[in-house]
């Protein structure tokens, strides 16, 4: 016997949006799926941000000539870690918002039956 043959089927007149609104088992699965996808996205963006910071730190720490560079009299490591991090933060935030919006749009399309 197939595992899905024992699952409760959704009535033909019941829409997915009704299932979500009524907080039925199907609706809970749909919402949990959205939450999991958003959590996964957050973890991936956080890991990418941490990796970018680690690369910056590694360049400062392990490239000896880099510590001697000066730009407008300011040590290059200070500029990289103090100013160069902000574009990384901005790019991470932009990517997260874009992907989170896409996840929510896909969820909305699924719930509305588009």
TrEMBL record:
The UniProt annotation puts the region (Disordered) at 1-25
What keywords are assigned to this protein?
Membrane, Transmembrane, Transmembrane helix
The protein's name in its UniProt record: Uncharacterized protein
Which stretches are tagged as biased composition: Polar residues? 1-21
- Please give the superkingdom of this protein's source: Bacteria
Q: Does the keyword Transmembrane helix apply?
A: yes
Q: What species is given as this protein's source?
A: Arthrobacter wenxiniae
TM region(s), chain numbering:
41-64, 76-97
């Amino acid at each position: 016997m197939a595992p899905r043959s024992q699952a409760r089927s959704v009535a033909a007149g019941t829409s997915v949006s009704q299932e979500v609104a009524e907080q039925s088992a199907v609706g809970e699965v749909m919402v949990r799926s959205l939450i999991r996808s958003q959590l996964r996205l957050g973890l991936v963006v956080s890991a990418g941000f941490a990796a970018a910071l680690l690369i910056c730190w590694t360049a400062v720490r392990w490239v000896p000539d880099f510590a001697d560079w000066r730009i407008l009299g300011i040590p290059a490591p200070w500029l990289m870690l103090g100013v160069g991090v902000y574009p990384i933060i901005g790019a991470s935030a932009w990517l997260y918002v874009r992907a989170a919006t896409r996840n929510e749009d896909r969820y909305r399309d699924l719930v509305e039956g588009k």
